[in-house]
TrEMBL record:
Pfam families: Lipase_GDSL (PF00657). Belongs to the 'GDSL' lipolytic enzyme family. It comes from Gossypium tomentosum (Hawaiian cotton). The lineage of its organism: Eukaryota, Viridiplantae, Streptophyta, Embryophyta, Tracheophyta. It comes from the Eukaryota. This is GDSL esterase/lipase. GO terms for molecular function: hydrolase activity, acting on ester bonds. Gene3D superfamilies: SGNH hydrolase (3.40.50.1110). The keyword Signal applies.
Length: 349
């Protein structure tokens, strides 16, 4: 009898611990660009959309949602891995309400950047506006959960930031405005200043768990390889070097902010090395092609150029690292998310 009581006590105690584990991160709150936009751009007057086939063909029900992928994006997989929910909704999606957003929401907008000038290029949501949406969300959640519970949720939720590639590839290297004002080194510092202030604002609003992503090897995106076609379609080393330098500076800023902001749990996540590993050795991950994309010819198609009328789109996206000329496939997103969860995010679990 005593043995049964001991076993019963053990299982009751174990069950009591489960909610505590899950409550470690009750919600994921996302800011950024197309890497983490689940469909906010559907509600914006911009040409940069993906709410049509073949986007989303491997998503639940085969439905295009506005995610720039054939299926789910990295933050969806992170949310699932943390046992929250399998997909994070877009804040501007009218299908969802504050009850849905209470356990995770994304304010991200494809095509945006740290720099306001970057969001102007394709008329998308500027980074500062994402913060305004977050403030609006906070007020809604306080009404929904009550002030004390909502404030506790803000402090325990994981605030994830993924942005920056567009500032260089969509803005700095294409238009002369910023490149005439700043050297690359100065522009990197300019952007990191914006990133640091954004984190300070999140901190003032009650965020205590923050993850900020570094830049990927952006010189290896299929679109950039295409522009380098006359030189063998190799990765553009200059762009990759910029990404690596930026990541070093961002890590330095993270270190300084951790000293400045008492009680903040701030880490940097870098997709650079893992994605480069996939690009250099695709067969190791079960891929067949890391140079071109699945959609269309794989060289330049993105957004409306990657539509259902394109006869060249591949039949199996799992063979490709990239879905369109700028964005990873669902399989790549899953691998990157798994890596981030097991490394950077391990301390949050």
């Amino acid at each position: 009898m005593a043995c049964k009581l001991v076993i019963l006590f053990f299982f009751v105690n174990l069950l009591m611990q489960i909610p505590k584990v899950r409550a470690t991160v009750p919600a994921i709150i996302v800011f950024g660009d197309s890497t983490v936009d689940p469909g906010n751009n559907n509600q914006v007057s911009t040409v940069l959309k993906s709410n049509f086939e073949p986007y989303g063909r491997d998503y639940y029900g085969g439905q295009p949602t506005g995610r720039f992928s054939n299926g789910r994006i990295a933050t969806d997989f992170i949310s699932e891995a943390l046992r929250i929910k399998p997909a994070i909704p877009a804040y501007l999606d009218p299908k969802y309400d504050i009850e849905d957003f209470a356990t995770g929401v994304s304010f991200a907008s494809a095509g945006t950047g740290y720099d306001n000038a970057t969001s102007d290029v394709l008329s998308v949501i500027p980074f500062w506006k994402e913060l305004e949406y977050y403030k609006e969300y906070q007020n809604k959640l306080r009404k929904h959960l009550g002030k004390d519970e909502a404030n506790q949720r803000f402090s325990e939720s994981l605030h994830l930031i993924s942005i920056g590639t567009n500032d260089f590839l969509e803005n700095y290297y294409i238009f002369p405005t910023r490149s005439s004002e700043y050297s690359v080194d100065e522009y990197q510092s300019f952007l990191i200043g914006i990133a640091s202030n954004f984190i300070r604002e999140l901190y003032k609003l009650g965020a205590r768990k923050v993850v900020i992503g570094g830049l990927p090897p952006m010189g290896c995106l299929p679109l950039e390889r295409t522009t380098n076609m006359f030189f063998g379609s190799d990765c553009i080393d200059e762009y990759n070097d910029v990404a690596k330098d930026f990541n070093k500076k961002l890590q330095g800023a993270v270190t300084e902010l951790k000293q400045e902001l008492g009680g903040i749990h701030l880490v940097m996540s870098s997709p650079y090395d893992k994605l480069m590993e996939m690009i250099r050795n695709p067969s190791h991950f079960g891929f067949e092609d890391a140079e071109t994309a699945c959609c269309g010819t794989g060289f330049f198609e993105m957004s409306y150029l990657c539509d259902n009328m394109n006869p060249f789109t591949c039949s199996d996206a799992n063979k490709y690292v990239f879905w369109d000329a700028f964005h990873p496939t669902e399989k790549t997103n899953a691998i990157l998310a798994d890596y981030v969860v097991k490394t950077t995010l391990a301390e949050f679990q």
